[in-house]
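Chapter summary example.
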Amino acid sequence: MVLYEYPFNEGIRTMLRLEHLFDRLGQLIPRDAAVDHHYALATIFEIMDVASRADLKSDLLKELERHKAQLNSYRGNPSISEQALDEIIGKIDHAFSGLNQLPGKAGHALTSNEWLMSIRSRISIPGGTCEFDLPAYYAWQKLEAPRRRADLMQWISTLMPLAEALNVLLGLLRDSGVPHKVIAPAGQYQQSLPAGRTYQLLRVRLNGTEPLVPEISGHRLMVSVRLMRQDAEGRLKPSTTDTSFELTLCA
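The structure predicted for these 251 residues follows.
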């Protein structure tokens, strides 16, 4: 199965981009090759760029508070496990505390490292990190993998409260939706959304054995999914077959 997610607002879009970058970082750091650690460092700079939005931290803190208040309202409900409720609220509290104690924006502490900033200023230039441009960075890449990894872990430590908050919030958002099977006649599916309810995320899960790509669009009144097929040259063309897939709306 192949999962696609479509955000309904800019806040969720930013959160998904950051989650994507943290996931990439988590795959690159355990590797030993210098080129993998080069791209891990490039990913750290990307996270800093995306997280530079002035209101991101305050928005995430507000969302954590909102979820905590909503969950606390379930206390005393006989159909809700108090133990499970305490566990989830504990995760929210831990994420809130870590993010709230983070000084400034995520990665702000790294901006005082002149060596890192010299790399950041050149890493987006094609070939800009050659040994004759940044000999000190070239020397760092020649260090043993455990030493490079230790440096990377130290640098990302200031980013981890952000990663934890994202993990908690996106987990709660995804758990709020109930997946259901739908059919796209001739490859097209539309669904009206109920008035008075605001959805934040659409999830589409396709059978991985079929080479289909969904083109998703949506707003507060309707969502639309058009299934496409790639030709030999990679161009997308509408699928004309009836296809079932799993759809989840998350609020």
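To summarize the output: Residues 10-172 form a domain with the YacF-like fold (CATH 1.10.3900.10).
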